[in-house]
Known about the structure:
Low-confidence stretches: none
Strand content: under 5%
Number of helices: 4
Radius of gyration: 25 Å
Number of strands: 0
Shape: rod-shaped
Order of helices and strands: HHHH
GO cellular component, one term: PAM complex, Tim23 associated import motor
Helix content: 55-70%
CATH architecture of the largest domain: Orthogonal Bundle
Keywords: Membrane, Mitochondrion, Mitochondrion inner membrane, Transmembrane, Transmembrane helix
Subunit structure: Probable component of the PAM complex at least composed of a mitochondrial HSP70 protein, TIMM44 and TIMM14. The complex interacts with the TIMM23 component of the TIM17:23 complex.
Distance between the termini: 78 Å
CATH superfamily of the largest domain: DnaJ domain
Main location: mitochondrion
Family: Belongs to the TIM14 family.
Amino acid sequence: xxxxxxAGLTVGAAAYAGKLxxxxxxxxxxxxxxxxxxKDGFQPQMNRREASMILGVRESAGxxxxxxxxxxxxxxxxxxxxxxxxxAEKVNEAKDMLLxxxxxxxxx
Length: 108
């Protein structure tokens, strides 16, 4: 009688562990993939490579694509919507750099 009880509890525990493993696997597959962002801080003098990384476009991107990326990034980082004014300034500087406009003088 005791061996039957132990065998039943063992099978039940194994089934429960398997259920948890399947649920965790399904959650991990459903989780969105996070993009890998640039880990270093901003360079003292922005160049085209850094500007393209900030906006998430190629250095050779066209004007329309740069403007679309600028709007997308500014919506996420605008100071009026809880973003950082420093980041917003860098995003604007990146747009100007890629569009070939005269560099803005930094406020910070």
